[in-house]
Amino acid sequence: MSKKKTHAAAGTPATTLLDHENVEYTLHPYTHDPAAESFGMEAAEALGVAANRVFKTLLVSTGEPGGAGLVVGIVPVDKSLDLKAIASALGIKKVEMADPVVAERRTGYVVGGISPLGQRSRSRTIIDSSAMDHATVYVSGGHRGLDIELSPADLQRLTDAQVAHIAQH
User: Fold this and answer.
1) What's the pTM value of the predicted model, to 2 decimals?
2) pLDDT-derived band of residue 138, with 50, 70 and 90 as boundaries?
């Protein structure tokens, strides 16, 4: 894995953070199909990577006003986020999926391209424990059609994430 930009328009807040922190990563651009039903599965297929190594970034709301209660959940693209499990990991009774408009405003990214890295406002983050089973994982690079491959340990460190079983199995 190397710190190389393989796409002229790849500069995103996520890559800026990785460069600033001297993290080893590889960019994986692909041609995004606007008709794709699942952005994450599209990435896995386009890149020829097992879906359990490609992770999607989802935001949930704890119900606190003004977006203060937004939490990032990072799960494999072939799984769903278990709302009860993430609530339990947070030590609360329930959460709900965040409004996409609120998620975009909070992160600075568009839905389908929300990276867990370099978000406009940092949120508490929980990574599904299955990420730690891999030497590297793929996450959105900050726009549709761009994934970043990096070690799950670096992802955890840079997002200050908790690791827990939060994917529906």
Assistant:
1) 0.91
2) very high
